[in-house]
């Protein structure tokens, strides 16, 4: 059976999602018996439309032609930013379409609203790609660890800042040069302030807290410090202390039910699995009451890794 979907946006993650679904179509069908057809792509940039990466006839500039198309059952929002992404996602949910997105800022800012809109319309909103890129973080919390009380989650959830810290520490690169390289590699946000000031990590931590502990805390309410004021001396000091300096997003559920959460540069002991997470890679360490410690690591940003997680959500909905 074929499931028809639409992509809103054909930037880095849009291309990765399209590639995962088309290049690996036979693999997906072998494993699931499902075919996914990208029926429409909302995109207005002529250079992107003419890039040859997807047939020209798939492109449209008319969101209504997507939301009113009864054949399209899943809409993947990959425009980024707040608007029109938020409005398009809500309209898609209200039109009875499932929504998949990597848009952590929009999900973190409107977590309850989206969950409610999905429930009211009998559809799902899925955002595996919003935390940890390719790493199956949400799937792990909801399925593999479902029988556990998760007591703590700690992560390196921003590839750009981890890349900068790694390059500064290992190669003595300047903060500015390392940031420039991260931007050129396509990891950084359009405005890298969101990365370096810990805003992106706070968005992801808000989602992690909601998923792990069932409590929604707005990202703006989280205690947050970024890496923009760190120097190579701070990194050297961490090394002297037998540690690595990492931008850690952490949330712990206390016995009384309160949650202690922060995003901040933290000295991580060398023997912690988080210390071994280098460059744009992400790592998430769960502490659980049954499974004990679970550590997941992988590529947290970029076209194909994020496309992989987007495609997984789309295929899972198709199933
Ligand atoms: N700017 C983000 C990062 C992209 O560097 O991790 C992936 O969410």
Give me the Rg, rounded: 20 Å
CATH T-level fold name of the largest domain:
Dihydrodipicolinate Reductase, domain 2
How many structural domains in the coordinates? 2
Tally of individual helices: 14
CATH top-level class of the largest domain? Alpha Beta
The helix/strand class is alpha/beta
Q: Secondary-structure element sequence?
A: EHHEHEHEHEHHEHEHHHHEHEEEEH
Q: What sort of overall outline do the alpha carbons produce when their principal axes are compared?
A: globular
Measured by DSSP, the beta-strand proportion falls in 15-25%
Alpha-carbon distance between the two ends: 10 Å
Unreliable stretches (pLDDT < 50, length at least 5) are none
CATH-derived architecture of the largest domain: 2-Layer Sandwich
Largest sheet: 6 strands, parallel
Number of beta-strand segments: 12
The CATH superfamily of the largest domain is: Dihydrodipicolinate Reductase, domain 2
Walk me through the structure:
- By secondary structure, the protein is an alpha/beta fold.
- The chain has two domains: 2-133 and 303-318, NAD(P)-binding Rossmann-like Domain (Rossmann fold, 3-Layer(aba) Sandwich); 138-299, Dihydrodipicolinate Reductase, domain 2.
- It has helices spanning 12-23, 25-32, 46-49, 63-67, 85-94, 104-109, 111-120, 137-144, 159-171, 175-184, 193-196, 199-213, 232-240, 303-318, and strands spanning 2-8, 35-42, 59-60, 72-77, 98-100, 125-126, 150-156, 223-224, 243-253, 259-269, 281-288, 292-299.
- The strands form two sheets. The protein has a six-stranded parallel beta sheet with strand order 3-2-1-4-5-6, with helices on both faces.
- A hairpin with a 5-residue loop joins β9 (243-253) and β10.
- α5 (85-94) runs parallel beside α7 and α9 crosses α10.
- The longest helix is centred in the last third of the chain and has 16 residues, at 303-318.
- The model has no long low-confidence stretch (mean pLDDT 97).
- The chain binds L-homoserine.
- L-homoserine binds next to α9.
